[in-house]
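Run log, item B.
One chain of 325 residues. Sequence copied directly from the ordering sheet:
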Amino acid sequence: MISFVLQRVLQSVLVILAVALIAFSLFRYVGDPINAMVGQDTTLQQREELKERLGLNDPFVVQYGRFVANAAQGEFGISYRHRRPVSELLAERLPATLELSIVSMVLALALGIPMGVYTALRRDGALAKSFMTMSLVGVSLPTFLIGILLILVFGVILRWLPTFGRGEVVDLGWWSTGLLTRSGLAALIMPAITLALFQMTLIMRLVRAEMLEVLRADFIKFCRARGLPSRLVNFRHALRNTLVPVITITGLQLGSIIAFSIITESVFQWPGMGLLFIQAIGTVDIPVMAAYLCLIALFFVLINLIVDLLYFAVDPRLRVRRGRA
């Protein structure tokens, strides 16, 4: 177990270093940071002095090592657009993105797993066919179109929900949440549904396919031959084996939700990291772009590491193979 964890940690460190190299390359090959920091009246001598002071004349390896060392401490420089430390901007936007992502993932799991199990056990029923039709719609429609349709129906026509923003939030130390206020909950509904719909349909179809495959396995036939109740066979033996691959997909999708919430945050003007990244692209705010890439890579690495450990703990076959090896 210890060797397995060390191997995964080493792989995670290599991935982080590779992403940090890509993020650092933005400073050298996308625009000129000096032009973003000085005015038109700056002389060439002043530009050279600023380059020397910032260490931009050092070799590539030295600059990259300095960038990695600063990133490990959470320092990514000053935003060109906001004239503030990037770490402060990310700390302000991180709670909004994580809150939206976690609520969306919980919603997708809470609906996707039961719907997948039901469509597998009652695949010829009318309700199961309706779920499958709805899943096709959820997979086919792009996220921005779903968000716009929700805004049109529930925000413009019915006027039930706010169409943009996060609503009123409560500060709990450095963390801010809208889950404790009525306007915050109302503002969260449409973005969470928009972000969760695709994930819910994906999880539902995955659970259904895995459940159908497990139900055809020999050990399920043996359980039925022994006279075990259908509820016990379906939900203790079949569902438990079905959830093993679902754990992996769920972990990857949680990382994807955090990384690709950009569209949803843009549609609803949700004040998260995704909206900050979109604005940074428009103004070529390289420190913010680099910090966002590194932070998203860190989320993916941590989530995948946790998923690997859970997969190792849930599936006894991996432990047996590791023990033989």
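Observations after the first pass:
- The beta strands are 170-172, 175-177.
- Residues 31 and 289 are 13 Å apart (CA to CA).
Flagged for discussion on Thursday.
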